């Protein structure tokens, strides 16, 4: 960027002035065009670097859900090479129990250009294990530069395992491992609702430990806890 100056000790004819003005405009346009191309090149390199080193998996599938592109992060997270799954149907890697929801997810996205939606499903690792993925899909089939559905997936397996443990702890007695009062009430609600719907009888069996207080008082709480754990193992 700068200025173009032409200096002379004599005046310029009008035709020459017009020619010089046109030349100046052309040079300016050429310089601006070169600057724009350089800016675009740097932007493309920056975007490519961000995608290549993303911690999430970016996948592009066509209208039939066949995989067209995946970022290198697929290898670190799922064990597959970046080109290993190209051409395969994405749902083929989804757990069969999640397939109905997966098909509905792709059908809904495919029917609405530029629409976005998020889903959680189990995705098969290369070693056969199942990962929990949270995937956000965006329909860019009408975008000439993409021509596909873009799936941005992240591994949430650790989070789901923690949630499952917390749920288990909330519904289980820490000492015996049996269902606690909260779980009992939930189970009773379900059984009563099922009994009313199908006209089947429902019963509750109550078991008591005789002389448990005497065991605690005479042998200590450790002995009482051991008795409860043993009873829990038999009851389970």
What do these coordinates show?
By secondary structure, the protein is an alpha+beta fold. The chain contains 7 helices and 5 strands, in the order αββααβββαααα. The protein has helices at residues 14-52, 73-78, 99-110, 157-171, 181-198, 212-219, 221-235; strands at 57-61, 67-70, 116-124, 130-140, 148-155. Strands 2-1-5-4-3 form a 5-stranded antiparallel β-sheet, sandwiched between helices. Helix 6 (212-219) packs across helix 7. The model has no long low-confidence stretch (mean pLDDT 82).
Strand order of the largest sheet: 2-1-5-4-3
Number of helices: 7
Strand content: 15-25%
Please identify the structural class as seen in this structure: alpha+beta
Shape: elongated
Mean pLDDT across every amino acid position: 82
Rounded to the nearest angstrom, the radius of gyration is: 34 Å
From the N-terminal CA to the C-terminal CA, the straight-line distance is 80 Å
Q: Stretches where pLDDT falls below 50 for ≥5 residues?
A: none
Helix content: 40-55%
Order of helices and strands: HEEHHEEEHHHH
Instruction: Let me know the number of strands.
Output: 5
Largest beta-sheet details = 5 strands, antiparallel
């Amino acid at each position: 960027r700068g200025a173009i100056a032409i200096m002379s000790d004599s005046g310029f004819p009008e035709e020459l002035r017009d020619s010089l003005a046109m030349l100046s405009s052309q040079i300016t346009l050429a310089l601006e065009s070169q600057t724009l191309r350089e800016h675009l090149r740097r932007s493309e390199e920056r975007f490519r670097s961000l995608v290549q080193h993303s911690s999430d998996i970016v996948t592009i599938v066509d209208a039939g859900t066949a995989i067209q592109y995946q970022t290198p992060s697929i290898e670190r997270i799922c064990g597959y090479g970046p080109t290993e799954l190209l051409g395969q149907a994405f749902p083929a890697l989804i757990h069969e129990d999640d397939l109905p929801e997966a098909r509905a997810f792709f059908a809904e996205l495919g029917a609405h250009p530029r629409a976005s939606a998020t889903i959680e499903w189990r995705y098969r690792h290369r070693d056969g294990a199942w990962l929990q993925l949270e995937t956000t899909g965006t329909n860019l089939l009408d975008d000439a530069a993409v021509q596909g559905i873009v799936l941005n997936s992240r591994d949430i397996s650790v989070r789901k395992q923690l949630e499952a443990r917390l749920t288990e702890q909330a519904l289980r007695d820490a000492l015996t491992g049996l269902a606690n009062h909260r779980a009992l009430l939930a189970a009773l609600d379900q059984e009563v609702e099922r009994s009313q719907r199908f006209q089947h009888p429902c019963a509750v069996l109550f078991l008591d430990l005789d002389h448990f207080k005497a065991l605690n008082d005479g042998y200590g709480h450790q002995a009482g806890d051991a008795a409860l754990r043993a009873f829990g193992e038999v009851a389970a």
